[in-house]
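Cross-check.
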Amino acid sequence: QVQLVESGGGSVQPGGSLRLSCAASGSISSINIMRWYRQAPGKERELVEAITRDGSTNYADSVKGRFTISRDNAKNTVYLQMNNLKPEDTAVYYCNVQVRLLGRNYFDNYWGQGTQVTVSS
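Predicted model, tokenized:
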């Protein structure tokens, strides 16, 4: 009913930049909070950033000043601009989206398939 397609991952050197995208499609009535999570090998999945429909954001301390989340409500897409990447940012990044489907009056959470980000010299 809802498909989330992530793109933009890859390998960069420390100090480099990447931009992740996550586009939602399907029988969507509205989208509430959009989030990016990441999971490094051997670690639990952690919240990186979140953005509400009106643009309010919440950041993890580890990425403040380096990562920027944004969204395009017309395209049902959330972005993560990652600058000054560090080796410790290496992880699989997942988008998570709160979606209300057509004909429903509640929101469900949906996950993207994940995209690998590797930061190494």
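The longest strand covers residues 28-39. The chain has a mean pLDDT of 97. Passed to J.P. for a second look.
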